[in-house]
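Lab manual, section 2.4: Encoding a predicted structure.

Procedure: take the sequence of the chain (280 residues), apply the prediction step described in section 2.3, and record the output as structure tokens. A sample record is shown.
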Amino acid sequence: MRWMIVGTERRSRGGIVLKSEREIALMRQAGRLVGEVLERVCAMASPGTTTGELNAEAERIIEQAGAEALFKGVVSPAARFPFPAALCTSVNEEVVHGIPGNRRLRDGDVLSIDCGVRLAGYCGDAARTVAVGQLTPESRRLLEVTQEALRVAIREVRPGRMWSEVATRIQELVESVGMAVVREFVGHGIGREMHEEPKVPNYYDRSQRRNDFRLEPGLVVAVEPMVTLGSGDVKYADADAWAIVTKDGLNAAHFEHTLAVTEDGVDILTAGGSSASAGA
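Recorded output:
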């Protein structure tokens, strides 16, 4: 693949933007802020806490840092109103895009929290799924498998590989334990904008051949496996046209990191907080 220099960025003919060292350093600052937000709000997630309280704390931290909440104000053709919050808080069968509000968390809930910020012109995006109180063994296993799926991706990312090789490993892990990867929603390139090329699926089949891409130093992507206990089929929830839920009503989990491909592997730009680790 040929790359041409455009200022501090290199662009492929397919629209994928490789980031300079300076840009990756700025994205790391945004990523660390995302990690700090997630660390704080995940620690708050307990029975009786509302998802709105989690969002209020996230907005406070983001504003104090002089950053912009990426999700707030985003418009979707399917939704009746712009997204109103800094966090996506998705509970149990909600996969992604759950809206924070008055919902009180209950013991046994599976809570996925997604956060994105723009700081100094560059974006970071990450998600974690946490247990609220005591989970059933089945739901606990769901979190473990989804987190491991992200860890597998991180271990497999290195320059010269095709993304399809990584996506296949994610899919194989999830399906080997009888769970399913959500196919309708995928990861994405990220930089000055939250969503850039390429699309980053967590599975691979013939339909993906034309969209496959090579991992190159300077490529930055948000990798976000979404896994369900059931079929993996999803739909819009009726309530607000933002939240995406599993069609069979079974629980889902979601883990995400912003990753930069380096000369010898990968740099996790959204690592942050005392408990952060690959896929945490």
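Check your result against the sample. Confidence is low (pLDDT under 50) at residues 1-8, 274-280.
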